[in-house]
């Protein structure tokens, strides 16, 4: 029984591996990785003596590793730590880990990933909100750009604990999901083909209705089943006309039609 | 773009137009066009359209086998563009909307 063991956390979660190693009274290092995160749990004669995950150490690190549902693990025999940070029995740790997994299942139903970015919700329903210091610590980090994982790293809290705090804050209506890249809305993320027609259309429509223009162009083309790269004047005219109908201001709609009709006429010549 | 009636006539496939407001009607069509002598029928259509001022839209297309009538209304003004079925209809609609908007502004 001296060979290393390894596998995927999607089929065998950390508490199960810990239980097996504990029953086998194994000594060595259990290494776990999940994307960019990693951690280790050290065993001596089946008892956990040390654990580390990011900035977390001791039992807290085990609880953090226990909730991972993806990634890989490897047990290497006879690797020993420099320090002893865990004094609880495996049974005590596993009992708490089970509670945490149950809590995380609820958290994940609302916050499915630590890569989500949240922003403050300007519309607060409650008249008065009382915050715990840990909630304030998290709130002070929220800028509509940092992911939950970033905030966990900055605050030194575990990802799962940070997600739990987010769960409470989202539930209380203080936060809403922001869009991941630098506070951009999905509208800003719409990419249109770089053609003279598309550029003219985007510029003129942006003048009429603002930054939502690329989104409207993409949506209208999809609804009409048009190919934005097609070099067909009839399609282009149909797209312009349909889009002009979506401009709320009649004056702006006519201005848009005016410049784009010019554009079409120039193309036709 | 000026948005004048001449812009309509520049579109390939457009035969001509009819402009109506109150009791005034101006027909610009080739003399042998089958709608050139249809003033009475066009007047009936105009009267009918003007009796229902709260229509959901102000652009209508009437398709014949070899001809399309694109009708634009704005208040008491009606612009009817007569074209072949192979015309760029979206371009006709775009230009027509601009033209009728300008006509109403100018109160022809």
Can you walk me through this structure?
- The complex is a heterodimer of chains A (269) and B (108).
- Chain A has 3 domains: 5-108, no CATH class; 118-177, Orthogonal Bundle (Arc Repressor Mutant, subunit A); 196-268.
- Chain A is α+β, with helices and mostly antiparallel strands.
- In chain A, the strands form 2 sheets. Chain A has a 6-stranded antiparallel sheet. In chain A, strands 7-8 form a two-stranded antiparallel ribbon.
- Chain A is built from 10 helices and 8 strands.
- In chain A, 46% of the residues lie in helices and 15% in strands.
- In chain A, helix 1 (14-23) packs antiparallel against helix 3, helix 5 (148-155) crosses helix 6 (159-171) and helix 9 runs antiparallel to helix 10 (250-268).
- Chain B is globular, with a radius of gyration of 13 Å.
- In chain B, strands 2-1-5-4-3 form a 5-stranded antiparallel sheet, with helices on both faces.
- Helix content of chain B is 33%, strand content 30%.
- Chain B has one domain (5-106): Dynein light chain 2a, cytoplasmic (Beta-Lactamase), CATH 3.30.450.30.
- Chain B has 108 residues and is α+β, with helices and mostly antiparallel strands.
- At the A-B interface, helix 9 and helix 10 of A face helix 3 of B.
């Amino acid at each position: 029984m001296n060979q290393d063991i390894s596998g995927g956390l999607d089929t065998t979660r950390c508490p199960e591996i810990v239980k097996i190693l504990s029953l086998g009274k194994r000594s060595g290092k259990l290494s776990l990785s999940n994307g960019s995160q990693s951690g280790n749990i050290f065993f001596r004669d089946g008892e956990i003596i040390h654990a580390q995950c990011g900035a977390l150490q001791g039992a807290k690190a085990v609880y953090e590793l226990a909730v991972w549902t993806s990634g890989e693990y490897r047990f290497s025999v006879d690797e020993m730590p420099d320090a002893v940070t865990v004094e609880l029995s495996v049974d005590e740790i596993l009992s708490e880990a089970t509670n945490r997994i149950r809590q995380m299942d609820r958290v994940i139903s609302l916050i499915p990933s630590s890569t989500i970015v949240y922003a403050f919700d300007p519309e607060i329903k409650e008249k008065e909100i009382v915050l715990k210091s840990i909630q304030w610590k998290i709130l002070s980090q929220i800028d509509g750009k940092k992911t939950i994982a970033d905030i966990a790293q900055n605050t030194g809290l575990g990802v799962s604990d940070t997600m739990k705090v987010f769960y409470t804050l989202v539930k209380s209506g203080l936060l809403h999901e922001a869009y991941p890249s630098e506070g951009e809305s999905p509208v800003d993320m719409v990419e249109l083909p770089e053609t003279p027609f598309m550029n003219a259309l985007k510029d003129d429509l942006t003048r009429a209705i603002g930054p939502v223009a690329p989104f409207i162009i993409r949506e209208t083309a999809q609804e009409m089943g048009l190919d934005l790269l097609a070099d067909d004047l009839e399609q282009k005219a149909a797209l312009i006309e349909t889009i002009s109908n979506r401009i709320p201001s009649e004056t702006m709609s006519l201005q848009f039609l005016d410049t784009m009709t010019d554009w079409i006429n120039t193309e036709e010549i | 773009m000026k948005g004048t009636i001449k812009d309509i006539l520049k579109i390939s496939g457009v035969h001509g137009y009819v402009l109506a407001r109150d009791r005034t009607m101006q027909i610009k069509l080739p003399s042998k066009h089958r709608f050139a002598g249809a003033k009475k029928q066009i007047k009936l259509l105009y009267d009918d359209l003007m009796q229902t001022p709260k229509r959901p839209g102000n652009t209508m297309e009437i398709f014949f086998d070899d001809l399309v009538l694109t009708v634009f209304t704005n208040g008491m003004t009606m612009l009817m563009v007569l074209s072949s079925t192979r015309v760029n209809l979206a371009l006709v609609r775009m230009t027509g909307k601009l033209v009728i908007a300008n006509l109403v502004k100018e109160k022809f």
